[in-house]
Amino acid sequence: LDTLSEMVELRVSPTEKSFRVATQSPAGECEATVPDSSDMVEHFTSNATSQARYKLGMIRPGLQPRAVSRV
What we know:
- This protein is of the alpha+beta class.
- Helices cover 20% and strands 41% of the residues.
- The longest helix has 14 residues, at 56-69.
């Protein structure tokens, strides 16, 4: 994710059968899409597309353990 971005967008889609995380800043756009068939996904259920934007600073503490676990 682009740490210069103020916002992060989360999207779950039943038609695309994926989870997407995206950021946007003056440097450009950055997005990571995880399909439901990925080994990272244990269970995927979505009856409707859901999209939300959050201030990255507010959810950054929740993303830290994910970054550490990938090392």
